[in-house]
Amino acid sequence: MKAIVCEAYGPIDGLACREVPDPAPGAGEIVVEAEAIGVNYPDGLLVQGLYQAKPDLPFTPGMEAAGRVAAIGAGVTRFAAGDRVVLSLSHGAYAEKVVAAQSAAVALPDGVSFDTACALVCAYGTAHHALKQRARLAPGETLLVLGAAGSTGIAAIEIGKIMGARVVAVASSNEKRALAKAKGADEAIGYDDLRETINRLTDDRGVDVAFDPVGGDAFETVARAMAWNGRLLVVGFASGTIPKLAVNLALVKGFSCVGVFWGAFTRREPEAFAANMAELMGWAADGRVEPEITERARLEDAAEVLKRMHARKTLGKIVLVP
């Protein structure tokens, strides 16, 4: 079978498409024949050695794959051959067939496509956990979403609206702001004059929750525009710069800086993760969330797709198709 392999930590260009042996399931494992594979920003960090984890080399990147169960190992009770599932992994998904523990699989309801399922894992899973468990977003609060046209930003917009928030989306171009509005944002603004615009839109009160997968200069700007008892969510650093917090701002403005590490959440709180995924799958089946699948690329083009994503030249969710 074909798989994308990282043979040495370094530039994304170093990824190679290789012929590798088909995986066989061990005890408690399943093999899934992938129909769609999600592409996520952390995949590119992982292969560059810039992520929190460093798998042993060589390895296959990829955090999510959806398809049908092709084989099951001894002791598997939750799934049978032919079942539709989506996998949530730390790595290993960029392949035609993916082996995983049955505990890493979530059954797909009728009506939820393989493409949609991939978006619901990392992007929507991160936004959901951030807004539900970490921010405890309440109806009527103002939610600011940075990087609003990316897959995680779009997820935060849709989930924020479901939770009853007023959503202000921040994106870098007219095209991206139009997409944010189409996905439900009440306001869509740019990064220029960000603090002044936030103050105007909130009558100088500030935002209750800020969802920041971007980092960089925007983080400090948002820190100065938080409301009393606000929650500034640290989700990621798509800008390439990890910002520093002037803690006096948290003191005088009375807001909290809250870390969001979805991968650790899935491992440390599996029951809460399972409940979150069930809720997301229900929303998707009911049409309350509709991930924006903007591109279906070949598995062989994984490196090119990741490079564009890291250059912030992509919109919505991209999936690879074996």
From TrEMBL:
**CDD domains xrefs:** QOR1 (cd08241)
Coiled-coil region list:
none
The chain positions of domain Enoyl reductase (ER) read: 10-320
Q: Which domain of life is it from?
A: Bacteria
- By its UniProt entry, which InterPro entries does this protein fall under? ADH-like_C, ADH-like_N, ER, GroES-like_sf, NAD(P)-bd_dom_sf, Zn-ADH-like_protein
Segments crossing the lipid bilayer? none
Q: What is this protein called?
A: NADPH:quinone oxidoreductase family protein
Q: Which organism is it from?
A: Jiella sonneratiae
